[in-house]
Amino acid sequence: MKAILIGFMGSGKTTIGKLLAEKLNLPHVDLDDQITAAAGIAITDIFSQHGENYFRQLEHEVLLNAISQEGILSTGGGTPTQSENLTALKKAEIPVILLEAAADTILERVSGDIERPLVNSLDRDGLTSLKEKRQPKYQACADLTIKTDGSSPEKIVTQILNYLNRQTD
Ligand code: S3P
Fold first, then answer.
1. Quick check: CB of 30 below 6 Å from ligand 1?
2. Residue 51, CA atoms < 13 Å, CB-side half-sphere
3. Most C-beta atoms within 10 A of its C-beta, which of 21, 103, 105, 109?
């Protein structure tokens, strides 16, 4: 991978990942899509039929496989919160970009999304406190943090490209 995007649900990892990959002429790999393909069922069904622990195990296996592929990786919001994933992300020495957005922005974007099991099971306060709890883990593996509120995908991708170019200078 050339870069890995992390951040809470609704922070824009997939949108930005796709655009970044397009600009770099690289494949875009979405971890949630790979998990869905590996399980053969939707993420909400993995949670409801097998539970979150099973999902996390699958997520870990799929992450290890994805890290060695070519492209830009958009992770799931919970990926860096598992210590073994955090270790794998750090060990890979691939630039990790954290996309940040205010809790209100995030809640606005994800509310009512039936494809996100945690959105279905938590209320606004629950999601806000989950976001706060995860923040230190996100920061522990981020090489670059970008605040996305009030920005545009083009601007965010330019910031990332500038950062990646500086790394290769
Ligand atoms: C999760 C986020 C989701 C998906 C799963 C669990 C989480 O990905 O991996 O529903 O724990 O925050 P997105 O961040 O792409 O919504």
1. no
2. 3
3. 21
Q: Which two tokens stand for residue 164?
A: 């990646």
Ligand 1 centroid–CA 156 distance in Å is: 21
Per-residue pLDDT tens for 112-153?
888 899 988 888 899 999 999 999 999 999 999 999 999 999
> Which CATH number applies to 3-164: 3.40.47.10, 3.40.50.300, 3.90.550.10, 3.40.50.720?
3.40.50.300
Structure tokens at 45: 């069904």
119, two tokens: 């959105």
Convert the pLDDT of each residue in 13-67 to its tens digit.
999 999 999 999 999 999 999 999 999 999 999 999 999 999 999 999 999 999 9
